[in-house]
């Protein structure tokens, strides 16, 4: 949208994030469960926060507020970058230390 795309571009971004979450979250959660990850519950709560924020963005966009949805997406991107750098990195280190590559 920042480069002149219309609301369809916003909807595509939201859909891409939803598709990512449908794969990423269950895969990680299954790995955490099967390998006894000690921070599993807290990490799952982080996924739930992401899904709730994405749902809110979907609602705002559907109500016809693309600028607000875009601002929310920008904040969500920062949150997602932080989640991957912290939570996903910790999980990766744990899995690697248990022989999972």
Describe the protein's architecture and organization.
The chain is mainly α and 101 residues long. Helix content is 82%, strand content 0%. It contains 3 helices and no strands. The chain has helices spanning 7-34, 40-62, 66-97.
Helix and strand arrangement:
Blueprint: H1 7-34, H2 40-62, H3 66-97
Short description:
The protein is mainly α. The chain contains 3 helices and no strands. The chain has a domain at 40-101.
Outline: elongated
Global structural class: mainly alpha
SSE string, helix = H, strand = E? Answer: HHH
What average pLDDT do the residues reach?
92
C-alpha end-to-end distance: 37 Å
Features:
single chain; 101 residues; mainly alpha; 82% helix
